[in-house]
Every structure is written in C-alpha cells, then in structure tokens.
User: Fold this.
Amino acid sequence: MGDARTPARRRRLVPWAVVGLWLAALVLVGPLAGKFGEIQQNRAVDYLPDSADSTQVARIQDRLPGGESTDLVLVYHRDGGLSAADRETAAAQVTEVEGAYELTDTPRGVPSADGSTLMYPVSSTQPGQDEEARNAFVDGVREIADGTGGLSVEVGGPGALNTDMGKVFETIDGTLLFATLGVVTVLLVLIYRSPFLWLVPLTVAGVAAAVAMAAGYGLHELFDVTVTGQSGGIMTVLVLGAGTDYALLLVSRYREELRRHERPYDAMSAALRGCGPAILASSGTVAAGLLCLLAADLNSSSGMGPVGMIGVLAALVAMTTLLPAVLVLLGRRVFWPLIPAFGSAPKARRSLFAAMGTSAARRPAAVLAGGGLLLGALALGTLDLTGDLKQEDSFTDRPESISAMRTLAEEYPERSSRPLTVMAPTDRADAVLARTRATEGVADATAGRDGGGWTEISVFATAAPETAGETRTIETLRDTLDDDHGAYVGGLSAQQLDLADSEARDRKVIVPLVLAAVFVILMVLLRSLVAPLLLLAAVVAVWGAALGIGGLVFEPLLGFTGTDPGLGLLSFVFLVALGVDYGIFLLHRMREESLNGAEPEVAALTALRTTGGVIASAGIVLAATFAVLTTLPLVPLVELGFVIAVGVLLDTFLVRTYLVTTASVLLRRRLWWPGRLSRAPEPVPRDRQPEPVQQPAGR
Assistant:
C-alpha cells in the first residue's frame, strides 16, 4: 500500500517544491536584478578591444591630471551672419559657463569664414569618470547656452554626444521590456485562444528575465564582463523570445499527452520526455553560438556572448521546471475553453502545413530548386548595403549634439570640428607635435595636459569627421608616430575606425567557430552528418537573404546612410543559432517517426504536419520580439532587429516548410547517413507490395 501511495505523493509534492524553490530564488536575486541597468557601459571606448590605439588613449587620459575630460563645443549660428549683439550674448554665456564649472582652459571663440557661426570649444575634468556628473555638466551647459530672437545655440562635441547616447540607452531596457511583453501577450492570446493560458508562460518568462538580469550583474561583478545597453536589450529579447518558443513547443506536446494520460503529472512527464531533447539541443545551439563571441576582439561582442547565453539558459531552466510545475498544479482547466479531455481525439481539421507539405512533395526537386534560387536572388540585395554607419547617423531622431556636428561640418569645411587625440611620451612630445603638424591632412595641432609621462595633443584634420580623408590622416599619423615616437592616436573618429577593423577581424574568426559548434551539437542530436549540413546550409542561405532584404530597405525606404559594422556578425550568430532551433524541432520529430517505422516521405510530412503549427507560432513570436528593436531610436538596433525578424520569418515559412522538407524527401534514408537509421531497410509502400501468390485449388 505504501508503494501505491508514493507515486501519488510525488505527483502532489514535486510541483509545489519546484514552485517553492523558484519563489525563494526570486526573492534572493530580485535586488541584484534591479542593479543590472547600473552596470551597463555605453561609451564608444567601452566597446573597443583592449589592444586598440584609441583604447590606450582613453586609458591614458583617465590618468592625466583631472582624469578624463568632458569636451564640448558651443555653436552659435544665425543665417545671414551673426550680429554684434549675438557675439556679446555668446561671450556672456561662455563666461557664465566658465564661472559655473572648472574648465581646463579659457574658451576662445573661432568664427566661421562667412561670419554666420561662432564656436567655443569647452573642456572640463571636473565631472571625471562619473557618468551622472558628466551628464549633469552637459545639461548645465545647455541650460546656460540659450538662443533667442533667431540665434541658434547648440551644444555638441564628444561629451554631448556621449550624454545623448547614454540617455537613449537609459530608456531602452524599460521600453524594450514592456514593448516585448505587450507583443508576446497579444500573440499568445491569439495562439492559445484561451483567456488564462497565455499568462502562465508569460509570467514564467518574466521570472526568467529577472534571474537573467541578476546573473548578468553577477557576471560583471565577478568576471568584469562588459555589459552594454545593446547586450542588455538583446538579452531581454532572447529571454522572452526563446523562452516563449520553448513554452510553445512544450505546451503543444503537453496538450497531446493530456489526451493519452489521465493525470496531468503523467502527461507532463511524457511531454518532457518527448520534446525535452529538442528543447535542450535548441538552447544548446544558441548558447554555443553565443559563447563563440568570447573569441571576439571587440569588448561589446565578447561581453554579449556570456550575457546572451545567461538569458537563453535562464529561459531554458524556467521553461523546463517552473512552467511544467505551474501547468501541472493548474490542471486541465488552464486550457479552458478548449480543454483536452482524457481519451478524446483532437478536432479533425485541414492542416495548412499538411497541405503545404503535400504540395511540395509532389515535385520536391522543382520546389527545392525554386526556393534556392529565390534565396539567392534576395541575397543579391547585399550589394546595395551602404558603407559603415557614421556616428552622426546612428540616431533615428537627431539629438542636439548631432545637429551641432552637422552645423560645424557645413560652416567650417576647412577643418574638422572633432579633434583627434594623440598621446605622446612627454620626453618626445615636442618632436611628436612637430611631426604631427607636418603630416598631410592636419590643419592644426596643439599640446594640452601632461602627467604620468604622457602629453595630450589635440589634432584637427582638414577633412570632415569619419570621411575617407580623415581616415587617411589617422592611418598616416599612426604609421608615423607609433613606430618612431611610441605615440597613440585616438579620439571619437579613431574609435569608430578601430570598431570597424575589429568587426572585420571578428567575422573571420567567429563565423567558422559558430558553424563548427552548431554542427557538433546537431551531429550528436541527430546521429548524422548529412542532416546537420542540410540545416546549416539552410540557415546560412536565410542569413544572406535577410541581409539582402535589408539592403533593399535600409537606404531606399528608411533613409539610413550606412550599415552598422557589427550587423553582419551579430545577425549571423543569432540567425544561425536561432534558425537551427526550428530545424531541430522538425528533424527531431522526423527522426522519431522514422524510428517508428515510417517511410521517409511519410516521416517528413508527418513531422511537418505535427510541428508546423508550433514552429510557425514560435517563429512569429520570435520575429515579433526582435522586430520590437526596430521601434528604438538607434539605427544599429533597428537594422539588427529588422534583419533577424525577416530571417526568422523566411526560415519559418519558406525554409522549414518547403526546402528542408523537400530535401528530406529527396534524400530519403541518406539524410541520416552514416547513422544506423540510414542503413535500415525502407518499408515498402502498400501500393508497391507484390500481390499474394494464389495457390492452385485443392492444395
């Protein structure tokens, strides 16, 4: 009798114990999750590799007297020319700024050639490295510098740009979280057609997000992992998007098992056994792909790897422990009004994916060739992708610092409004200054602070910021000064150049790593070499097509004048890792059907029919969560969200439904080579079985 009561007791206690453990964990990690936003670093230098010249310049600046300087440019402009009163207003406001803050030098006005603009460079070390103090300094200067009567006054410069960028990132976490929750809520209500069921996976995803934020904070504190506003936002999207995908697969299988098992506990156990390996492999591919980013030279990319992995693993653990426990405790009634009764059969209805699969199977070679040509044609759109995105074009809504930058570029064409910074050993500073002034492309150079054996030199190029001419000047200075004088060349423009160079290096290293890591996981899961190659070829084709569509949209339709240098690498990592998920769901079910004796074509179409709906739902949810990034005011995030969302939809409705299915039909048992399933004899279809031999009468 004791043995009979033990399973019943386990069915009652295990779900409650799991929920209790999660509640305890949430209480413990809650305060840490609230600190996640505090550790995000969003200066351009925080994204750079340690070895970059511009990183060395920034670090040396921190050690100079007064520490890091906050550099601004006050821009006074009037169409038609400044009046005497305008100049008096400008001088009075600059004097007020000098009286309110400790400046490194007395600002001196530089008039434009046509007399319509007057700029005052302003620099202060008073705020130091404290972000709030820097922002307060910029905001304070903006309150003082005010134009009236047609006089335009703008505060620009590197310090103002960093403040404007930081304010954008401050709004990302909250905006992204609530927008994503809203999108996922609507989609889950439509998918489940239940007034209650949608709330369960969404609540569990929220718990997973809190745990991920706490773990991200711990990573930063313990291992000094770089966390940026971009990686924090991506982590939120991954938790909600991937977590909802896992929930959709599990709930779909649980609904099936409830018709076969009387007790919800037993049904959930069967559901976890059935789809657990696919969910585990799916999360494993995403985690492995993200971990490959640790090999990136770029701090922002290498930090995004573990931060994103934490988000995926938090979603995995929550959706395979907390979600099953809550569903078991709620019982069948959580599915109301479409409650799956024990022993009942699902409502017979025409499956869209069954119809699509059947139509594709009639002429699989033609469908496969046509789909491949379509993806190839779309990939040609990458030829329309413009050059690297300039920092001034990184905002969808132009902030004041960018307006000031453009005004300066128009009114001072003879020299750059954004200085480069050369750090020279003090004992060689005079030689470095003379060599810098003699360098082609340099309009002016002046020595500034010195300390700790280093001297700061501000260099103004003749070319506008982030143009080919300025890039040549930076490269010439580095070639000349690094070797002969031991100097470093940095500044905002140099940082952007170093970012682009690091991104190019990282693509060459990380792309093969991601492909190798995902291939190994697929090979172990599917017991095959051919099936993993098929899936990888499919997701790479999707990535190319999605980037091609981006090339057709970004500049012609959205007006973007450049492409973020990191778009290719990050979109590749996410589309390969996430896109393979759906291939895993499909091929894992196909393999299951084949092991049960189904012939290859039947196994492929059955897998598509049974998983097509849940894969479509998961793809729509994941695409929608990444599409939320397109609502943010930063062009790099808009481009990344667009490419991933389009790629996920292509993968869901074209590649999985038609191309992988038709390729599986054509390959038949060869799909599983060299595994034992490839060597198993195929069952003979009934319409091809020989007629039974008729024995002569009387025998």
